[in-house]
Design a protein that fits this description.
8-stranded parallel β-sheet, TIM Barrel, Immunoglobulin-like
Length: 400
């Protein structure tokens, strides 16, 4: 009896002092996740091929590092000791061997599970097995855990995610903890000390501005997701990000829409998690995804989430403060036709009330850089003039 009491007290002590791993995700995580394209139809060779493409296509050099397996990697039942098992047909060599392969490429390995009794795909969830699962992930050298919210019955979201956070910390291997409860429980109010990123919406779908019903829930297009939440940008920053879901770049929208999608995720300081099949991606898709100047806006060390500057005449204008007194701006043509756009810098005050950053454009002149096309566009002493295609974007940085 004394031994049992001692063990309980030790575990309680660890839990009381547990925190998330600090020093991780100081900029929004960048990587790839299997769900958007493959659902649960994943296997060992696919994942190795994707890792190879990170290197071959220059995506690793552009900053992408996490290869994350979503739902469906595990067997349908736990083993006799209650441990999760990799599906022996999909992953015949197991998760540790796959992690070793990904690490050999200089990349990092991520897995998925769920706070409920079962995952969204009806595989074993972590409820009641949090510490057991965390130890297993650590033994497999996992670097990133996406933790979903299906089949949770009456669980308290904050409490459930704290439990897994504490389990990961106790297991001892630093892992990025991705909270995926779809924004239903206002994670931006409590998740800063629990995870490194948290979903703010339900699932994305590969369309510009649509909502697709699935019975009791819906998937949302790019702009539906962008417009879904208000007043949450102030909680984002290094090590704690609002996650607008995995990207649909390369999954069926136009190249222009893909550029705007990528620009907006960069402006929003959202994690840049690719969701397409890199083995068959077009040159234009890879050109967009690997654009280092756009990525630099997302990865800016200040970690300030951008915001809507104006929205009139079918032109969305977004603004994001950057390090060294620089700014990023995105001009998105929301109409179905190309537009000849003119922006008079002297008629607009540029500022960010949340972060106390302001510029008097009548007194300050900035050099303008077109980050998608890698060219200079003069400076702010004269009007900005551009032709912007339907659903396309002009994204610029401003530097004194």
């Amino acid at each position: 009896m004394k031994k049992t009491i001692l063990i309980v007290l030790l575990i309680t002590s660890v839990n009381c002092n547990a925190q998330k791993f600090e020093g991780l995700a100081l900029t929004p995580p960048m990587g790839w996740n299997s769900w958007n394209t493959f659902g649960t139809d994943i296997n060992e060779q696919l994942v190795k091929d994707i890792a190879d493409k990170f290197v071959e296509l220059g995506l690793k050099d552009a900053g992408y590092e996490y290869v994350v397996l979503d739902d469906g990697w595990m067997a349908k039942e736990r083993d006799a000791n209650g441990n999760l098992m990799a599906d022996p047909e999909k992953f015949p060599h197991g998760m540790k061997a796959l992690a070793d392969y990904i690490h050999s490429k200089g990349l990092k390995f991520g897995l998925y599970n769920c706070a409920g009794s079962k995952t969204c795909g009806e595989y074993p969830g972590s409820r009641g097995h949090e510490y057991q699962d965390a130890l297993l992930y650590a033994s497999w050298d996992v670097d990133y855990l996406k933790y979903d919210w299906c089949n949770t019955e009456k669980l308290n979201a904050e409490g459930a995610y704290i439990t897994m956070r504490d389990a990961l910390k106790t297991a001892g291997r630093p892992m990025v903890f991705s909270i995926c409860e779809w924004g239903d429980n206002d994670p931006w109010k409590w998740a800063k000390d629990v995870g490194h990123l948290w979903r703010v919406t339900g699932d994305i779908i590969n369309c510009w501005d649509c909502e697709v019903g699935h019975g009791s829930w819906s998937s949302n297009g790019v702009w539906k997701i962008i417009n879904m939440r208000k007043d949450i940008r102030k909680v984002a920053g290094p090590g704690h990000w609002n996650d607008y879901d995995m990207m649909e770049v390369g999954n069926g929208m136009t190249d222009a829409e893909d550029r705007s999608h990528f620009a907006m995720w960069s402006m929003l300081a959202s994690p840049l998690i690719m969701g397409n099949d890199l083995r068959t991606a077009s040159k234009e898709t890879i050109k967009t995804l690997s654009n280092k100047e756009v990525i630099a806006v997302n990865q800016d060390k200040l970690g300030i989430q951008g915001f809507r500057f104006s929205n009139e005449n079918n032109m969305e204008i977004w603004l994001k403060p950057l390090d060294n007194n620089q700014w990023a701006m995105a001009f998105i043509n929301m109409s179905d036709n190309p537009v000849d756009f003119v922006f008079d810098w002297k008629k607009h005050d540029i500022g960010d009330d949340v972060n106390g950053r302001y510029v008097d454009m009548k007194k300050n002149v900035f050099k303008i850089r077109d980050v998608f096309n890698h060219k200079n566009l003069g400076d702010t002493s004269t009007n900005l003039k551009a032709k912007i295609g339907s659903h396309d974007v002009l994204m610029v940085t401003l530097k004194e």
